Amino acid sequence: MTAKRVLISIDERLLARIDAACDRLGTSRSAFLAQSAARDLDGGVGPGADPSVRAALTTLDRLLAERT
Question: Is residue 19 part of a domain?
Fold first, then answer.
């Protein structure tokens, strides 16, 4: 895979949070942002991808909406 250099604008507070996460994880900004983007674009990843979990979250959302 060929890496491409890109120029993006990010709010300085968000950038500080990204840098803090990179320090904790021992990774570079580029790697962190690439992994985050891939995770988001791949979708269907994480507990919410499971249909039973998605159904439970939908039910929870409905119940909470009824309380307000």
Answer: yes
Cβ-proximal residues to 3 (8 Å cutoff; 6+ apart), any chain: 30
Give the count of domains, the chain.
1
Residue 4 lies in a domain: no
What pLDDT score was predicted for residue 51? 82
The pLDDT score that the predictor gives to residue 52 is 85
pLDDT tens digits, 13-65: 999 999 999 999 999 999 999 999 988 887 756 666 778 888 898 899 999 98
Alpha carbons 25 and 47: distance in angstroms, whole number: 22
Tell me how far apart the alpha carbons of residues 61 and 2 are, in angstroms, rounded to a whole number: 42
- Position 54, amino acid: R
Question: Is residue 50 one of the residues assigned to a domain?
Answer: yes
Residue numbers of the domain that contains 36 = 12-67
